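I am writing to request your help with a piece of structural work I have in hand. I am sending you one protein, given as its amino acid sequence and as whole-number tokens for its backbone shapes. Kindly check, if you would, that the fold set down in the tokens agrees with what the sequence suggests. You will find the record immediately after this paragraph:
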Amino acid sequence: MKKSGVWVYAKGVVLLGLACAAQAADNSKPPAPAKPSLTVTVATPQTASLTQKISANGNLAAWQEAIVGAEANGLKITEVRVNVGDRVQRGDVLAVLQADSLRAELAQAEGLLAEATASAQEAKAQADRARGLQQQGFISSAQFSQTLAAEATSMARVLSARAMVQLQNVRLSQTQVRAPDAGVISARQATVGSVVGAGAELFRLIRQGRIEWRAEVTAAEIGRIQVGAPVQIKAASGQLLQGKVRMVAPSVDAQTRNALVYVDLPTQTGSARAGMYAQGEIALGQSQALTVPQAAVVVRDGFSYVYTVGADQKVSQLKVQTGRQSAGRVEVTSGLKADARVVASGGAFLNHGDTVRVVDAPAVHAAPAAPANK
């Protein structure tokens, strides 16, 4: 039995030794590589020329608004020929006032002119005769002077009567209220049957139909804006407009510390109207910027991040500052080196330290050319 026990013990020792040797052999093997969590493509940041812009808000307003009023006093409106929104040309009749009394006054003035003309002709004839008699010595100097004075007085009366006729013609022409310039009627107070006084406002006219954008910018931005700079505007109606800076206000509002920038807009503005609120961007010029694909930027908790791939195929999360955007690319102002390998897309599914598999970006094949017509 002793021999049998020794044999069993020896067998157990041998088996234990074999197990320890097997475990030591396993520990000597290199660890298995980590399984990639995502297949990605990488891109290198590129330097591109981007447009510098200033964002601003403001209102659309009439370029110039003319007030059309009545010049004649105490006359009744008999006809109104335009309504709000109508386009008119310079000199078009907008409203007609009652002219009966003015026509009568004109006829009276013309009668007085005819009477004064006849008297002047008679006085001239007498003066001509007096000149012949005075040379022969048949009339005294006093009588001759009286005749010449009567002639001059009659001519003055003719001039006065003619001026009165011109005045009545002007007053008669004022019974037709005309447009002072081409444009669009923006307001109308004229009503048929109402009696208007001199200077009463009847219409408002947007001259030449032009509207402008009055953008509010800060005092620090005034010096960067140049006259003639292109501007892109989006009105509250959704209409997109292209304009140019016409003028920068010479002063800053003491309350808001903002200044106005006046931007000329095209005549045809679609659905955009004066009085609308609008947002826009004023172009300042071009500058070089480091950019990455827009899909490479991941926003988390209000911050922007990109993921870079190292030599060991592990990704690192980098916090970056972004700026302008153009053509699917985003400017990175800080936090990224120019030679970094950036995950081009899919960063939202990654975490810091993940292992990825990098593949080449798919090639963009040109569309086959259409066969030539024979």
